[in-house]
Design brief:
Length: about 200
C-alpha cells in the first residue's frame, strides 16, 4: 500500500466552548446568512398570524354574545378577522416553502432552518412520530455545538403594520361591506393595543 499524497486536514466545524460563550453573550451571529434572515421573516409572520388568531377569537365571542341589531357589524368584523388570519398564515407557509431554496452559510444558518422545520411541526397531528423527535434531537445537538439564535420579538409597530395590511386584504375579499369595515379598521383599537 502506498502513502496518500492527500495530507491536508479539513477544518473543524466545531467551535470552542469559549467561542460559543462569546457568541451567546454578545448575541453575535452572521446577520447576512440567508437562512437566518428567512427564519426572522418566518417568526414575524407566525407572530402576526397568532395575533390575528387571538383577534378573531375575541370577535367570535362578541358575535356569539351580541344582540340581533349588533350582529351584522360584528359579523363583518369577524369575517375580516378570519380572512386576515388566513392571509397571515398563508404568508408564513410561503416562507416555509422557500426554505429548500435558501442556502445556509453557517452552522447557525442550519439551526435557523431546522428551527423553521421543527416549529412548523406544531401543526402536525402527532409530533412524537418519526421523524420529529429525531429532528428535534439533531437541532438540540447543533445548538449545543454552535449556540442558539437570539430570540427577537418583532417590534409592535411592525406587527401592527402587518396586521393592518392583512386586514385590508381581507376587507377587499369579504365583500360589499368592505368600505365600512375599512373605515372601522382605521379606528380599530384591537390591532393597536393587542399587537403582542
Amino acid at each position: 500500500m502506498t502513502d496518500s499524497d492527500n495530507s491536508t486536514t479539513l477544518p473543524s466545524v466545531t467551535t470552542s466552548r469559549r467561542d460559543r460563550q462569546i457568541s451567546k453573550a454578545s448575541g453575535y451571529f452572521d446577520d447576512s446568512d440567508p437562512a437566518i434572515l428567512l427564519q426572522r421573516e418566518w417568526l414575524r409572520a407566525q407572530h402576526v398570524s397568532q395575533v390575528l388568531c387571538r383577534l378573531q377569537q375575541r370577535l367570535e365571542r362578541r358575535v356569539l354574545n351580541a344582540g340581533v341589531l349588533e350582529t351584522m357589524n360584528q359579523e363583518v368584523d369577524y369575517l375580516i378577522a378570519c380572512q386576515a388570519e388566513v392571509e397571515a398564515a398563508t404568508a408564513a407557509l410561503k416562507l416555509q416553502d422557500r426554505l429548500p431554496h435558501v442556502p445556509a452559510r453557517s452552522l447557525l444558518g442550519i439551526v435557523a432552518k431546522l428551527e423553521i422545520i421543527a416549529g412548523a411541526d406544531r401543526d402536525i397531528d402527532d409530533p412524537t412520530d418519526f421523524p420529529w423527535p429525531h429532528i428535534w434531537s439533531v437541532l438540540n445537538d447543533l445548538k449545543r455545538m454552535a449556540g442558539s439564535l437570539p430570540i427577537q420579538r418583532p417590534e409592535r409597530s411592525v406587527v401592527r403594520t402587518q396586521c393592518r395590511r392583512y386586514q385590508a386584504i381581507a376587507a377587499d375579499l369579504v365583500g360589499p361591506e368592505k368600505h365600512a369595515a375599512n373605515h372601522r379598521l382605521e379606528r380599530s383599537p384591537w390591532v393597536a393595543t393587542n399587537a403582542e
